[in-house]
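Notes on consecutive records. When two proteins share a document, each keeps its own sequence and its own token line. Never mix them. Below: protein one.
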Amino acid sequence: MPRPRRNPFYVVLGVAGFAFTVTAASSCVAVLRGVRPQAVDAAPHPLERVMDRYGTSLLVGELVVLAIATVGAVGLDQYNAERSRPSREVGQQARPAAVDRVTEP
């Protein structure tokens, strides 16, 4: 049996999933620091400024990439599974399904 082909969408899913996790955690920390500031006079961390300005856009973009990569991974896996199935013999055809008839009284 031939070895299945690698799915490049899994790499995209891994990288995007890691980026989404880091972005979501950073966003939560930025929100918590905004709600409960420890030192009012302290300058915000650069990551906080980035998350305040672009956090929502980053999260939405990463979710879109994750959704597209998920559909691509599933589709490519299905395509590879269909290609690797042994084809039916030329002379053999699938039998049609029996149709039940309902009789009216």
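Protein two starts on the next line and is unrelated to protein one.
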Amino acid sequence: MANWFVTKLKNQLKKYNRFINRIKVSRFKKTLQHCGANTSIQFPVCFEGPEHISIGNNVSINAFVHMWGHGGINIGNDCLIASHASINSVTHNPDVSPYRNSIETLAVNIGSNVWIGSHAVILPGVTIGDNSIIGAGAVVNRDVPANVTVAGVPAKIIKNHSV
């Protein structure tokens, strides 16, 4: 009898947690500039300046993703963003001292059907073309054309492909 009760309790707690998560995601999506249909967000994530972040349809964002959106972040449709990825649209001017006295914002634009690997870093002002793959741990400091795979620090094209 005790086993049955414990199993029932665990199942009810799982249902409750899924319900709470749906409410959390729903509220979180409303803080964004735009959030398309069928977008999945795994908590915890951290979005600074969510009112400047626009996400397309069918986007999957895994846990521990951090976005600094004050300069604008636009994510196309059908994108995958793996855990611990960082997308930053805010930086400091290296010609101003002390650095903290200067803040520059440069929009980040991510095309459709882009896969960003875990621990990848996307720096301010970067545009990533459609159908591209950003390798795990890559540091993207310049634009990425469509239909390529980039990897490394700094990220370099390692493969051309077509989808």
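For the record: The chain has a mean pLDDT of 92.
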